[in-house]
Amino acid sequence: MLIREHTSFSKSYRSLYRPAMKINYRPEIDGLRAIAVVPVILFHAGFSWFSGGFVGVDVFFVISGFLITSIVLADLEASRFSIRTFYERRARRILPALFVVVAACVPAAWLLLPYSQLVEFGQSVLSVSAFVSNIHFWLNTGYFETESELKPLLHTWSLAVEEQYYIISPILLWFLWTRAKGAIVPLLSILAVASIILAEHGSQVAPEAAFFLPHTRIWELALGTLAAVLVMQNGGVRQNGVLSLIGLAMIATAIFLYDEATPFPGVYALLPTVGAVLVLTFTGPGTAAHRLLSMKPLVGIGLVSYSAYLWHQPLFAFARHLSISEPAPYVMFALSGITMILAYLSWRFVEQPFRRSNAISRHAIFSLSGAGLVTSAALGVFIAHSELSRTRITLGGESFVALSKETSPNLGLSGACRQFTTVEKCASGPNPIAVLWGDSYAMHLAQALRDSPTTLPFAQMTKSACAPILGVAYNGPRYNTKWGMDCIKHNEQVLEWLKGQPHIRYVILSSPFGLIGGMSQLTLATGDVIKSGDLSETHFIETIKRIKNLRKSVVIVSPTPAAEFNVGRCLVIQSILGRTPDNCHFPLEGHGRAGLYKKLADISARTGAGLVLLSDLICEGGLCLSSQNGTMIFRDGGHLSPKGSSLLGRSKDLSKRIIAAAGAEGI
């Protein structure tokens, strides 16, 4: 993204597009770029004041659509439009700085990333080379995937969206200009409306797809295109100080009031994008918005905004890979400053030289671009699939492959057990007498139950992020109403299955129980979405009663105690750097789930359900162990690793504790 078509104050830029429709340099557009890129950077740095800073990407989509269309229309009016010239400009603007940033990421990724994450990084390098990184990250975004803030090239998704738009837009504009000039505005308007309808629908039913894919983003670029057409038809900007200030206010409102829970990119995205259109179409030299946006500091940041956007995510991602907890605000602020320094150097010594056609010919730029894309793609394949990637050794002497296996998602008995199923592989043995019911925090108990000295054959009935609470489900950015209805259906299926299983004596319920006592949004069985309040607790108590009415013992197993940092990531960092894992132990007192533990104890007392606190298995003498005898107990911030779960089962006999909590004599 951040296509750099509107360049510096250079005479070479202004002379490039004479005669015919004259494109004058507008410093306020570079100022608008600064207004967009700074919030994006500070949002990704974790500064809460810029909770909606992600809308800067949407503003850039509008700017890019506006500038590219302005240039294409100028060329069409002058009868000099050429697809070859169009893509030459794209190559000069985008690829050199992109190649430099990708090249800088490779050694850092090679030294720091566990094998599974290095493979994903290699795949992302390949997808960047093919301008399909938005599709790659859409396919690799999910509950068990690497956190987005740890992916060095995640931000290139927006670049891919723009390039996909530029495959279509110049040809479409040329066709309409030469065949149906009067239809340009109506057809672009239809395209934009259709796209925003898809975006609004997608943000509700498939938020990841709506966020990453072009059909739900093209309307933002099309808004910029429409603005450029209207400015051309009007003979230039129609100066209006009030409307231009309203546009800035709309962008600012989204930046400071939106957050990650805001559905995007549906109708909420209209606020910053329409705001950008107002700035582009009504900001003239006599307006207050022009005076503000033309301030030298803003213009300077706008000039280097493309490089700043490219550099910030890798810097933040690798800093987080090296930090046990979220880096301190001063660290992220310093990295934001380093981003701007690297951006200037990249703009000065990479972007600018490659823009000069008198220094680098068209043939040379195409040859270099082709060679760079092929090399980058080959490098991505090598990183993702080579034996050298598999055999890398950490500074601690452990192989990266072994480290990745220890931190791999813990799906319990089998990956097949992530949804309702009665297949044999989702039972620890024939004739189970217990059922493990819950989400991923139930999955990670499977090895502990299976390997406990006390035999407790069980069936696994689990679904990721779906708490074992009948009639309600979490509703949020990644878990929409459709997903919530599927979760509710899953839990009803488990209960119906239990009704026909008289041999099942124990029902083990486990989850982080984030819905209980919180103010999360809930999806109800009716399809309504409401704030949870105490409703989740009420439904959980009712769930326990319904199970007990089936004459089965209920045992609640708590989630793990929570540290102030991601324990699994801490263990990985210590191993990579050759440090002791003891640095990742944390105190039990005041741990992050202490309040939940009290709430579960109260529910246990009120319902007669048994309760097992995992702190009794993990913590000794007030200290919660992150690892034991070289085995990582945690795989991330809360889940047990497969080996860690097995270790706790063998050493702490979880099955025996569950039977005791249920008040049984034994098997």
Summary keywords:
single chain; 667 residues; 3-stranded antiparallel beta sheet; 13 strands; 57% helix; elongated; disordered N terminus
Describe, in plain words, how this protein is organized in 3D.
- 57% of the residues lie in helices and 7% in strands.
- By secondary structure, it is an alpha/beta fold.
- A five-stranded parallel beta sheet has the order 2-1-4-7-9, with helices on both faces.
- Strand 5 (521-524) and strand 6 (529-531) form a beta hairpin.
- Helix 3 (55-77) packs across helix 10 (218-233) and helix 4 (83-112) runs parallel beside helix 17 (362-385).
- The relative contact order is 0.09.
Précis, in short:
By secondary structure, the protein is of the alpha/beta class. The chain is built from 28 helices and 13 strands.
Structural class: alpha/beta
CA radius of gyration is 28 Å
The overall strand count is: 13
Poorly predicted runs: 1-21
Strand order of the largest sheet: 2-1-4-7-9
What's the helix count?
Answer: 28
- Return the average pLDDT rounded to an integer: 90
Bulk shape: elongated
Main β-sheet description: 5 strands, parallel
Distance between the termini: 63 Å
Q: Determine the fraction of residues in helical runs and give it as a percent range.
A: 55-70%
% residues in beta strands: 5-15%
